[in-house]
Amino acid sequence: MDIPPLAGKIAALSLSALPVSYALNHVSALSHPLWVALMSALILGLLFVAFYSLSHGEVSYDPLYAVFAVFAFTSVVDLIIALQEDSYVVGFMEFYTKEGEPYLRTAHGVFICYWDGTVHYLLYLAMAGAICRRKRYRNFGLYWLGSFAMSILVFLTGNILGKYSSEIRPAFFLTIPYLLVPCWAGMKVFSQPRALTRCTANMVQEEQRKGLLQRPADLALVIYLILAGFFTLFRGLVVLDCPTDACFVYIYQYEPYLRDPVAYPKVQMLMYMFYVLPFCGLAAYALTFPGCSWLPDWALVFAGAIGQAQFSHMGASMHLRTPFTYRVPEDTWGCFFVCNLLYALGPHLLAYRCLQWPAFFHQPPPSDPLALHKKQH
């Protein structure tokens, strides 16, 4: 997978978030939630117009260029918010976290801001750079799609259901377009042609003749997927208040963060159970039986989703903004870290395997093209 050069123009313009946020933080009128929402919407609108005017050719070639440009700006803003909430910087986005979206001050909010300000930011620059040079960015787009969708779904649902439901301000409704963007962007990304592979018909046939026991890497991934599926189901039952002793011990001694009334961890575990659990079963099937050409794409989507989710979940479980009673106990920290790290690493290994050796997932070629030709004539 080729890594496209980053978009320098967008990188430079996105850094304007620093002086803009600093200036807005000192405007006294922004102490009212409605003015915060209106000013935020105005800035995003002006940014979209500016990027469209400065890069009309790129936007005409691919409208997602303007989306990535605006989102790169908001990623810098999110990184400022995270650094501010951890006391690394002061005087930038205090007005927004107080009057706009106070739930960004939670441990979960801080870590999704870190992820957006680093991983998503680099992905936006890479995808915009690919558009500038008329190159494909399908794999980057699929990873971003999964990551972005998981982040926004858990965050918005947790805001509505958790203890911050009474703190919803007008700025919350600015996130509505964030629900529509993944749908549109997903259709655009999936419609892009896949990168050409060097797999010949003989290579595909040879690879697909091998049983699972002849493919030790795939066997290890299938075992991982089965174990991850059980772990996903178990944690889903834990947040649903399963009365068994194992669930009781786990939620009090290993992951007490699942009891946090902010609701983000509970929503996250339910997302895992409803979406990741079926994927584990389907992926194990695709690694066992050849010709499942859908797996490489969806492995990237779920790698992005689980990577983002585990980063936020693990970080929030140990962050100082999480009340002490809900943080991971010191004596179980090692077990918690290893289990959750493996849970995040596995989908990335699966995606890497699918991209590097895709022959097993190709549609099998006709067994005897010459015989088929004679039969037709």
TrEMBL record:
Domain EXPERA stretches: 61-186, 217-351
UniProt keyword list: Membrane, Repeat, Transmembrane, Transmembrane helix
Gene Ontology CC terms, in alphabetical order: endoplasmic reticulum membrane; endoplasmic reticulum-Golgi intermediate compartment membrane
InterPro entries: EXPERA, TM6SF1-like, TM_Tm6sf1/2
TM ranges: 33-52, 64-83, 103-128, 140-162, 168-187, 219-240, 269-287
Compartments reported by the entry: Endomembrane system
One annotated GO biological process: lipid homeostasis
Topology with respect to the bilayer: Multi-pass membrane protein
Record-level Gene Ontology MF annotations: identical protein binding
Similarity comment: family membership: Belongs to the TM6SF family.
UniProt name for this protein: Transmembrane 6 superfamily member 2
Species of provenance: Pan paniscus (Pygmy chimpanzee)
